[in-house]
């Protein structure tokens, strides 16, 4: 069972405490939503899961199944099946979307019957499902892409690599409502495959198409409230005031 287990996680950025004792469990196939005011540490948590070099783990642990992620390097964590869709995706000039994916696919453990020709077709099919024209696949990743196009590229990559647990950081910012629906449906397909999801968001709207098992509210580097999807609806309507003590 590949359960993600975060225990008493304390993280500093440039000697400043940002995460102050996070405890979180996400079981295989579960969808967990993380909400919280700007600056509460949501992206820092996502970045720490993937061992961003700026995130210094001071105390606590992150485990995924048998893997102790908090002692592993980013590429090892990715190969263990834990991937991150960035809040601010980076451009990689000179590397096309297809090149990046075909190179990445070879670095991951793949089933014995893996065929590159079939994988190339899957790239095209997934792009089509996201209403992304083929021409994007031969362009440099994210170079000159609009905000929404970059977000679609993040989901395209996560869909094609052998993910077991994915952290999706504010995929809904920058997407128009039709694009959000397409992206949410693509994420649902991953969920049906048994992928665990950690969805970081400010809005309830993505949850129209994705059922959340748990919703957690972060504030000042801690989880201050946990509940069901009703909690996300309440936050969207009434804000955070009832859940955070300034
Ligand atoms: N390099 C850094 N040095 C010091 N503090 C930093 C650094 N990078 C980020 N921070 C601070 O860490 C805190 C948490 O940032 P983080 O990006 O995790 O918040 P967030 O919850 O994702 O916010 P948002 O909803 O706006 O995306 C913020 O107060 C931010 O200013
Ligand atoms: Mg953030």
Automatic annotation (TrEMBL):
Q: In this entry, which stretches build a coiled coil?
A: none
Q: Which UniProt keywords apply?
A: ATP-binding, Nucleotide-binding
Transmembrane domains' residue ranges: none
The ABC transporter domain is annotated at 4-245
Going by the entry's taxonomy, the superkingdom of the source organism is recorded as Bacteria
Enumerate the CDD domains for this protein.
Answer: ABC_FeS_Assembly (cd03217)
An example molecular function term from Gene Ontology annotations:
ATP hydrolysis activity
NCBIfam families this protein is in? sufC (TIGR01978)
Family, as annotated: Belongs to the ABC transporter superfamily. Ycf16 family.
Protein name per its UniProtKB record: Fe-S cluster assembly ATPase SufC
Q: Which organism is it from?
A: Candidatus Kaiserbacteria bacterium RIFCSPHIGHO2_01_FULL_53_29
